[in-house]
């Protein structure tokens, strides 16, 4: 970062003559200094990361699984079938919570549960909201451990065993283990192909980084394991659009730790339409703001957690600068105006490719361990490297504005 600052001095001076020196420093800090520091921190941390071996590989603890559903008649069958294929030897108690579905979700789940020999119980939550559905299911959980699983998420056959093995191998103050979510429908269109790399490289790597510092910031509701008593201790899932983010930060605030297990894999369908995608990612951005408002980073008891949650404070700033400065700067460069983006910007590409190659090599090892094969998706990779941030930054800004304007929350 210091090297970047030194070599950028001429750029700062030239831009300062156009927009004033303070504005130039603020712009270049948001475009180059902070993103460069965060990327370097990520890569170096991952190079030092060594995931501890499992102390037990065949746990048998009974586990409850909460599946919150709303109009999932088409997807719930595949989800239950994958649960039936698990190599986990302990008892599984499955609660399908129907949250005001207008289709036959409950009937399909009940019938298939009987056919598969699963212990499925159907519950009904009338009050809209995923948090209300999960809290309804939590009332019936009697096991020490509980898993939340989205109705459109399919588990790898070893998923539950590996998730539980990590929990049983962890220190006593670990209250949750997040599983790894990957994309199932990446063949549908270009947007799904890009998201495949985001989940495979971006999201998984950030969770590994956070897990290394014992502060995974989101035990995602789509697929994570929790200690039931701790979930109840913090009041269950909160009334928030990012209920899983706020819940996780509540764990961290009470000095609990959250881990991530990269080999406990599940596959989900990602949005293939831009509007659906924008709604999902703006919800994620809005959920981060909710968490920051409810649990301030400086209130976190652990130093690593304060650092990790505190880094989220700069994310809105980075997204605003990227959206309203970098993207217009890119457009200006097409007309020969190189105030923000110029030929020198291409020098970032080799570093970006090297970074993603390092992340790819690790993920390839995870896949090999599970007997999986990485799909060929070269076009999606280059779109991810070159274009993804140009999509994500404006969408995230829209999420921040939604929370600022207190717009109505929508589950889907």
UniProtKB/TrEMBL annotation:
This is Glycosyltransferase family 2 protein. It holds the Pfam family Glyco_tranf_2_3. InterPro entries: Nucleotide-diphossugar_trans (IPR029044). It comes from Neobacillus mesonae. Coiled coil: none annotated. The chain crosses the membrane at residues 23-48, 320-338, 344-360, 381-401. Keywords: Glycosyltransferase, Membrane, Transferase, Transmembrane, Transmembrane helix. GO terms for molecular function: glycosyltransferase activity. Belongs to the glycosyltransferase 2 family. PANTHER family: POLY-BETA-1,6-N-ACETYL-D-GLUCOSAMINE SYNTHASE. CDD domains: CESA_like. The lineage of its organism: Bacteria, Bacillati, Bacillota, Bacilli, Bacillales.
């Amino acid at each position: 970062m210091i090297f970047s600052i030194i070599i950028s001095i001429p750029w700062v001076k030239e831009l300062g003559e156009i927009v004033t020196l303070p504005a130039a420093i603020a712009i270049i800090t948001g475009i180059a200094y902070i993103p460069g520091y965060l990327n370097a921190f990520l890569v170096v941390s991952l190079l030092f990361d060594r995931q501890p071996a499992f102390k037990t590989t065949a746990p048998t603890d009974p586990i409850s699984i909460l599946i919150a559903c709303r109009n999932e008649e088409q997807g719930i069958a595949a989800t239950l079938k994958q649960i039936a294929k698990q190599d986990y030897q302990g008892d599984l108690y499955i609660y399908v919570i129907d949250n005001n579905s207008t289709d036959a979700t409950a009937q399909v789940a009940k019938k298939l549960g009987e056919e598969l020999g699963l212990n499925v119980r159907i519950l009904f939550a009338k009050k809209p909201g995923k948090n209300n559905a999960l809290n309804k299911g939590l009332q019936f959980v009697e096991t020490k451990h509980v898993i939340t699983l989205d109705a459109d998420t399919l588990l790898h056959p070893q998923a539950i065993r590996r998730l539980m093995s990590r929990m049983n191998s962890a220190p006593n103050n670990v209250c949750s283990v997040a599983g790894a979510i990957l994309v199932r429908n990446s063949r549908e269109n270009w947007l799904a192909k890009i998201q495949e790399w985001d989940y495979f490289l971006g999201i998984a790597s950030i969770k590994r980084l956070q897990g290394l510092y014992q502060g995974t910031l989101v035990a995602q509701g789509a697929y994570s394991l929790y200690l039931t008593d701790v979930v109840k201790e913090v009041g269950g899932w909160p009334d928030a659009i990012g209920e899983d983010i706020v819940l996780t930060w509540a764990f961290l605030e009470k000095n609990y730790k959250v881990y991530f297990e990269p080999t406990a894999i599940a596959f989900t369908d990602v949005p293939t339409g831009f509007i659906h995608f924008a709604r999902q990612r703006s919800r994620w951005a809005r959920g981060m703001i909710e968490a920051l408002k409810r649990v301030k980073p400086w209130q976190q008891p652990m130093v690593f957690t304060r650092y990790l949650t505190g880094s989220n404070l700069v994310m809105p700033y980075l997204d605003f600068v990227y959206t309203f400065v970098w993207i217009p700067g890119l457009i200006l460069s097409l007309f020969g105006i190189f105030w923000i983006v110029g030929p020198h910007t291409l020098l970032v590409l080799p570093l970006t490719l090297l970074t993603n190659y390092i992340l790819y090599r690790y993920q390839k090892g995870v896949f090999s361990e599970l007997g999986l094969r990485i799909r060929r998706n070269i076009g999606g990779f280059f779109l991810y490297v070159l274009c993804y941030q140009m999509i994500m930054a404006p969408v995230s800004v829209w999420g921040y504005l939604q929370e600022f304007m207190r717009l109505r929350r929508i589950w889907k």
